[in-house]
Amino acid sequence: MTDLSSLYQTDYRAWADRHAELLRAGRFDELDIEHLLEELADMGRSEREELESRLTVLLAHLLKWQYQFRTLSERWREFKGDSWRATIIEQRERIARRLRKSPGLTSRLDEILREAYEDARALASKESRLALDTFPDLCPYSLAETLDEDFYPESR
Known about the structure:
mainly alpha; 6 helices; elongated
């Protein structure tokens, strides 16, 4: 085990700092390639998982907006609508920020949206206590609608 490989196990921050120095200096033959590749793969996976998580929450709230809002009594509509709207706005802003920071994720958005919808549908069902089959099997919103800050689905 090389010194850098040992450092990876004991002091991650020092390991990362050392790699930054080596890369800046062009000393590529001294890099701990195995762990460096592992970290790069984890970074991409982590960014993708964050985006999928945010899309899941956003889609669940869009579903609740569309399918549950009409079932609420008048007294609860104002409160729930404001709460859901705030979450929808926040998730859209955080998704936009993630895509600015990681533009490479943009090419995978359609795929991530499809995967997030499966979890969003289940989440909306659990949170609203509406039957799972209340919600469409496939995402009823386009990617453009999902990310459009002015889009709020009609109640059905």
